[in-house]
Amino acid sequence: MGANRLVLWDIDHTLIETGGVGREVFAAAFHAVTGTPMVRMTTAAGKTELAFFRETLELHGLSPARFSFARFARLMACGYHERSHDLLACGRVLPGAVGALRALARVPGIAQSVLTGNARPTTEAKLKIFGLDRHVDLDIGAYGDDDAVRAALVPIAQRRAGRKLGQAFSRDSTLLIGDTPADVIAGRDGGARVIAVASGESGLADLKEAGADVVLRDLTDTGALLDAIHTLLPTSA
Questions:
Q1: What pLDDT does 73 receive?
Q2: DSSP assignment string, 27-70
Q3: What is the pTM of this model?
Q4: For the chain, domain boundaries
Q5: Residues near 85 by Cβ (< 8 Å), separated by ≥ 6?
C-alpha cells in the first residue's frame, strides 16, 4: 500500500531541544557572515530561520539584502556538526519522540517528514546528530529556507510528497505536529490538520486557543498520539 497520509513534524521543542547550543551556533554563524557580533536576538519560537535571520540583522542595524542567508545556513549546519558533542551533552531528544517516530513508521499508508523553521542544512545536521534522520523522508518536507512564512511551507511539503509518492495531499490527508501557536496557525492556514504538544514554552490552553485539532501534554503516550492521528487522518482520506 502506498502512502496516502502525510505527517509533518516540527523539530525544536517537539522532537528535540538544543540546550542553548543552538543560540551559540546561531551567534557564531551570524558573526561569520556579517562581521558583527550578535548582541541581541528576537524570540525564535515558531519562526522560520530565514525570518529570524532577517529580524536579527535589522536589530543590529544591518540590511538583510546585504547578506547571504544560504551561506548563513551552511555555516549553521557546520557549526552543529563541529559542536555535536556539546549538542548531545546539553541538548536531548524529548521524551516519547523516538517511540512516536518508530510507531508511525510501522503504520501502513503514512509517510513522515518535517515541516520546520530550520533551513534544510540545519535540519539535516540536527536530526543526524540525534539519530532521528532515519525515521523521516527529508525530500518531502519543507524548511525555513523555502519561505519566510511558515504557513507557506505546508503546500510546499504537500507538493513534494505528491511528486515523489504519486498521491495528492490535502488538509484531510496532511497532519502537522508542533509545539507553538505559530505551528498551529501555520498548519491551519496552510492546509493541514494539527496536533499540538505542550513540550515547549506554550501551555495546553494556548495551543487549544490557537486552533489545534488535538492537544497533548507530550509525546510519551504513543497510543493517544496514534489514536489522534487515525481520527484526524482516516485511512479513507
A1: 95
A2: HHHHHHHHSS--------TT--HHHHHHHHHHHTT--GGGS-HH
A3: 0.94
A4: 5-17+92-232, 21-89
A5: none
- Closest C-alpha among 167, 169, 221 to residue 195: 221
- H/E element, 79: helix 69-82
Cα–Cα distance measured from residue 176 to residue 107, given in angstroms and rounded to the nearest whole number: 17
User: What number does CATH give the domain 5-17+92-232?
Assistant: 3.40.50.1000
Instruction: Compute the C-alpha angle 188/186/131, nearest 5°.
Output: 115
Backbone φ and ψ of 192, nearest 5°: -145, 155
Nearest Cα residue to 9 out of 135, 125, 129, 198:
135
pLDDT, position 228 = 97
- The grid coordinates of residue 108 equal 501502513
| Best CA proximity match to 91, nearest among 18, 155, 14, 28 | 18
